[in-house]
Amino acid sequence: MKANVVKEKENIVKLEITIPAQDAKKAYDNAVKTYSQYVNIPGFRKGKAPKTMVERQVGKERIQQEALDRLLPKFIDEAVKENNLDIVTQPELTAVKFEDGKDVEATLKLEVKPELTVGEYKNLKVDVEDAIVPADAVDKSIERLLNQYSQVVEVKEKRNAKETDIVVIDFDGSVDGEKIKGGEGKNYNLDLAHSNFIPGFAEAIVGKPLNEEFDVNVTFPEEYHEESLKGKPAVFKVTIKEIKERIMPELNDEFAKKVGNFETVDALKEDIQKHLDAQKEAARRQNAESAIFAKVMESVKVDIPESMIKREFEALKTEYEERFSMQGLSLENVFKAQGQDVNKVLTEEAEARIKNTLLIDKIAKDENIKLTPVDIQAKLQDLSRMYGVDPQSLMKQFSTNPGVLSAISQQAINDKVRAFLADNNKVNYVVSAK
Fold first, then answer.
1. Whole-number Å distance between alpha carbons of 411 and 381
2. What does the pLDDT look like over 31-58, one tens digit per residue?
3. Three-state secondary-structure class, residue 95
């Protein structure tokens, strides 16, 4: 086989391949045999008709195409490896010359990764924001545990709602005298201390009595997702139908045994502190990897072709559309509500993604960083924990979808390169001023 590479425009190259005549003849004859098994030729059993009869019945061009389909993948692969071509799309056959007894001459158009240059990415000194564990983190964790094991009981005595109560309410909202679509509810449980309602709503219920209708006046936030309600004053007619309070368990050794088989409260606190320390180290590592990668990215120079940006743009758009549609939202409306141009945002994100991937691939190639089955298994374990699915089941699903498996492999190599950068640069942890 002979292969000639001609660089054309941007990241497009022309690949000219010459396939030896003997290989072409063998592939052609095999294609004839394949067709002879399926075509009906009067006077001959399937598979027994002469070559000339099969050619007359099927057509030489069709047989040649079958032969090319068998020949080209092998020879293209050899040519790509021989010439170190880093292709990003399937090769496109633009011309072919296939004559009996002669070498086959095929011309293909290939899109290759653009050339990327990067400055020094080892032995850098990078300031990294430190991860801080608040002084009261253990106490807050204990408080969450106590809440988790608390009991919610109805208040039997006649009293007004307190800020720590959970209330069961009926409510009906209106703006400018018109009812709000979806702005009413019956027997709704509202935790007054942890409300995600409109700001001021829960606070206005504190101090109100049972079974008496009252008005709650609030203003919808300017960033509210519903355009027609942004910044609008609203009135909700509210009735408290039931008041509940949370009964907290006592923090003692019995409680420690109940939540984790710890002998004492001190042992429970020590275990919590151990987890907090581990979380801090994981956060520090993540901060370091992100800061170092961003620092290295500053030195990257690359001209990304429009064709690559367009493909990544369309892939991103599809991702966003699927994600928002699951929430009953549309891509355009979400970005419009945020005051953003969807095309501008997705184009910038597409360019950033491509640049990121190109940098990862270059460092992996230059440093001979390769994936192993263990790396893929570790990534599957991460995904299985994230989605609560068995790793083997995930692998079975992904094996039928090469695109998803490729994305997982890219994530895994991304993790290895970022870890390599973190291990080969100097980090100075600093405390943020905020």
1. 13
2. 999 888 888 888 787 878 888 888 888 8
3. strand
Residue pLDDT, tens place only, 138-172: 999 999 999 999 999 999 999 999 999 999 999 99
Question: Whole-prediction pTM value?
Answer: 0.72
Residue with tokens 């390599």: 420
Q: What is the pLDDT of residue 66?
A: 93
Q: Measure the CA–CA gap between 75 and 49, rounded to whole angstroms.
A: 30
Helix (H, G, I), strand (E, B) or coil at 389: coil
- Grouping H, G, I as helix, E, B as strand and the rest as coil, residue 233 is strand
- Mean predicted confidence (pLDDT) in 317-337: 87
Proportion of the chain in helix, strand, coil states, percent, rounded to 5: 50, 20, 30
Q: How far is Cα 363 from Cα 118, in angstroms, rounded to an integer?
A: 9
Question: Left (φ > 0), alpha (ψ -120 to 50) or beta: where does 36 sit?
Answer: alpha
The structural domains of the chain, ordered by start, are: 2-111 (3.30.70.1050), 114-149+265-303+367-434 (no CATH), 151-247 (3.10.50.40)
